[in-house]
Amino acid sequence: MIRNGEARVLAVETAARRVRYDLLKVLLVDDSHHMRVMLSEILRAIGIRTIVEAGNGGEALQMLRNHPVDIIMTDLAMAPLDGIDFVRLLRKTAGPSQTTPVIMITGHCTLARVKDARNAGVNEFLAKPLTARGVLDRIGLVIDHPRGYVRTDSYFGPDRRRRNDQAWDGPWRREGDTEHRRLGSREI
User: Fold this and answer.
1) pTM to 2 decimal places
2) I want to staple 76 with a disulfide (CB 3.0 to 4.6 A). Which of 83, 149, 152, 165 is the partner?
């Protein structure tokens, strides 16, 4: 539950960002009804009014056919279709939902699972136990700092690079890097 003091802090932080949270549509995907209720309460506290819920990845894919959303928040561990498989299918399915930002929520933060999720096309991670500040921060990241999408033979999803390192002296491999293309320290 959100305490009164925390709700006031959230109200000030959301006002400072000047984002119209009331216009956002969020899909919550979690097999725990309790977790969906808690997340819905946090989202409503920051001003989000349109919240769609699904109990697993299969339900979520069905819902996305009729309810386009701006952000997807999904749990990692679900059955019969877990969060990673859901994101893989989402990224492989052509349509407007293919590039919807995904925030993966998990209590299983092993490096291997994080890499699996990143390689499936997850935009951001949020570790349990959840806090209102953590939710607001991750939503802020996907809104304020959106990453472009990359398509290769084996991957479609958000660009996994977090920053542009100007000191990088290796080969630039993205099409958008043409003005920076190098081979070692030589321009090509």
Assistant:
1) 0.79
2) 83
